[in-house]
UniProtKB/TrEMBL annotation:
InterPro entries: ApbE (IPR024932), ApbE-like_sf (IPR003374). GO terms for molecular function: metal ion binding; transferase activity. Its EC number is 2.7.1.180. It comes from Alkalilimnicola ehrlichii (strain ATCC BAA-1101 / DSM 17681 / MLHE-1). This is FAD:protein FMN transferase. Pfam families: ApbE (PF02424). Its cofactor is Mg(2+); Mn(2+).
Amino acid sequence: MSRFRLIRLATLLGLAALVLNACSGEELQHRERFYALGTLVEVTIHGQPERTALAAADRVRRRLEDYQQRWHPAGDGELGQINRALAAGETSPAASDELLALLATGRELERLSGGLFTPAIGELIRLWGFEDDGRDAQRPDPQALEAWLSARPSLRDLREEDGRLASDHTGLRLNLGGYAKGYLIGQAVDDLRRQGIERAVVNVGGDLLTLGEPRGRPWRIGIRHPHQEGIIASLEVGADTAVFTSGDYERDFEQDGERYHHILDPRSGHPARGLSAATVVHSDPVRADAASTALMLAGPEDWPAVARRLGVQRIMLVEPDGRIHLTESMQAHLRVEQTPEAGVRSWPDP
């Protein structure tokens, strides 16, 4: 496939990032696409026969669908049951060890980000109508929004005893969307590795993790332009590397002539302003996922301190006028494909 067609494909598929490597002819390559977690998933597998690749991709699909059922904030799975108990001021049923471990990670990421990232933001997400696919999104009732801001719950308000969760804040509603994707992609790649697959990429809605790398060369990843057709930059990454992007284009709506998007700032209760996209490259997909959200909220001037605390260095930020911010370590492996009139600003690594 030509580079031009690959660039257009990123836009047509709605992916924030796309694997650009073409098949070298030296080994088999299979790409399987399906929908899960409310978005398009692409599993790219190198060096395996079609039957093996198809079976592996199907395992990824089933894993993601299982977690979607278990961890939907309003569903019948364990997270939905926990949220209903918290809203009623009751103690929840016992949570799984897996969920408790993920919440412990979330508590640490919340602390490191200064509260910009928090899984306790679920009620705010629900008020804006972004809990599912955003089709019912609208400005929240002002009184309900003010009530949430007055309480402003965090994971510090969540108590756990023998696996059961409780809180004195009935407005605390858990939503794992800010980092569960990173966790699930990591689990999917680990599963591929256990099946003996050595070279693959799992891409969920443009957030991806590599497994190994194509023979003799890195993976080439295209990063979607947040507001124009095609990709804004191409990036080379090696084995076992996560690339995650938060952008204001993923889910949005217009009301009374004003545009709103789904990345909500817990400080204001409104969508983040100042950046259109934040891309983070890191070895840990959970860290990359949470950091991309936190940096979007930190904005074009305050992000270095947040990045430093979170321990991320390979960063690209895009402002609404198209201006690009690149850290030195990101710039070393990235090529800007659409140079903005507002320019490109280089930063030292945090």
